[in-house]
Amino acid sequence: xxxxxxxxxxxxxxxxxxxxxxxxxxxxxxxxxxxxxxxxxxxxxxxxxxxxxxxxxxxxxxxxxxxxxxxxxxxxxxxxxxxxxxxxxxxxxxxxxxxxxxxxxxxxxxxxxxxxxxxxxxxxxxxxxxxxxxxxxxxxxxxxxxxxxxxxxxxxxxxxxxxxxxxxxxxxxxxxxxxxxxxxxxxxxxxxxxxxxxxxxxxxxxxxxxxxxxxxxxxxxxxxxxxxxxxxxxxxxxxx
Length: 240
Known about the structure:
Blueprint: H1 3-23, H2 44-47, H3 62-71, E1 76-82, H4 88-98, H5 102-116, E2 127-130, H6 135-141, H7 145-157, E3 160-161, E4 165-167, H8 179-186, E5 190-192, E6 202-210, H9 214-225, E7 230-238
Parallel strand pairs: 1-7, 2-3, 2-6, 6-7
Antiparallel strand pairs: 4-5
Helix pairs in contact: 3-9, 4-5, 5-7
């Protein structure tokens, strides 16, 4: 292809991007204000309202204590931010789970990655295992948001993504269930994928929200039974 035609193509792409920005500007998913940087998903003003947990650097944090209570296993665990239904975490999660915003899950994963590299507690965990969706739910949604979070994390930390778990049961949405019902729902829902070997690996289970800890705890137990050397837990948010 000649330089002339290549220049024409590049000019057209640039012009189309400018037109698209005018017609449909890149806006903050939380407040709706236009964003100057197209690589951003949340404006600086809204990011300033985020309540960070700092669990990446806090040992014996509430997540770790809860998972140990449910599994009998000591784990390293962190969530990036406190879950707030009408806040940044709630709106970001709602957008990538129910509005098709895959880009937000990747962005959120990279935000988690930035936090992980600040702590040596997670330095040995470079393999990220997404909490799987049941195949029916994934087919309906078109993707697994936890896998996209893993991809975002791995991109920032130079780790890798391993889809080691399969979901055997298509559980109902857990948002409105009691703690006891969530724990019952999570029993026996995962198994190790037959094509994957986790023996001797240090892996980190990744999910979007940590509430009662039932889902990730079941994943931790299954991975340990599958021979994983050590299992960590990483989520975007934590809270009821």
